[in-house]
Amino acid sequence: MDRWLDHMVTLDPAAPMDAALRQLPPRWAVYLTADEHGTPVQLLAVKNLRASIKRRLGESAEGAGRRVDYRAIVRQIHWKRVDSAFESDLTYLDTARIAFPANYRQIVSARRAWFMEINPDAPFPRWMRTDEPSGKCPTFGPMLEKSHAGKLVETIEDLFDLCRYHNVLVQSPGGSACAYKDMGKCPAPCDGSVSMQQYRSLIDWSIHTLADPEQEIAEQTDRMQSAAGDLRFELAQKIRQFAEGLDSLRKNEWRHVRPLADFRYLSVQPGPGKGLARLFAITPQEVRCIACLRGEERELILHCDDAQALMQARPAIALDPVSLDALGIVARHLLSPKSTGVFLHGNDLSDRAIVQAYRQIARQATPLVETDDEGVVAELSA
Questions:
Q1: Which SS3 state, helix, strand or coil, does residue 141 take?
Q2: Boundaries of domain holding 44
Q3: 311 Cβ contact partners less than 8 Å away, ≥ 6 residues apart
Q4: Mind listing the pLDDT tens digit for each residue in 214-224?
């Protein structure tokens, strides 16, 4: 556990708890209790480590009415102080995976981020939502909810007149066209009205547009202005409506949707004291704390360069469950209006941006609210 939890207190069952409690700060922490053999008993993320241990293992914890007498079992307390909710979530997840490999999925199964992906080389390609992207085909995200990904799939189908009924598409060219053909909202590859090769060109267009909506909007705006200049106002109106639909692809719950290969961020989070900050480099494969430092501009810029080098390495994407779990945590904090950290995309990193991000964090006088009680954030037991 030393990799994630860097402190340990050993409990003597014959000694009072006061000595052990004095070694534990009344601060936010992630901690793991273990028995005399080092077998994990309970993992918690709390807002007050000392209060949590006192409540669960102190003298007042003895007696009837408790389902488990943890004081009779626990002989070790492994813990790590955390200075942001982001760091707490990452530490808790990593420790849970090692300490409770059989059941840690209980705490992360509902926390995965959502994506949409498509295999353009499939016999009958279609956009699909998923929380387990393979990384082997065009993939876009993250989104917090399954419904957000589903709505994005529907929006792409509407914008690019793609087939809505895959069970009919797979019958091409012998399928029966649906009402979308009659409405002029689908070219009907299912009944052979267009070839699958022609249909793939629409698929490719949708992929390239989702990767860079701003470029497509600029091109469509030029088309609209040209049509209006030629007095083709009906066409100009249609192009305008299409461009407005494209503009929605970078708003609200989709505001951070990008190609998975472009999921590269530097996050500046509160550190262990006033004026201190932790820097996290984020890629699809991992989230890595690269520094804890005070805001000297030279140091910030140096570590910004380190983060850029790490993110620009861009190895082939091979997503495993560990990577997907971490992506879920990043997505929740990236998209949460209550996030205490700052996230800078790899394309937006600059000396000025990282200095401004540090100053924003430094202004947070009390990034984590301390409490007198234990303030359980998360809990997992053997």
A1: strand
A2: 7-110+372-381
A3: 264, 265, 266, 281, 282, 283, 346
A4: 999 999 999 99
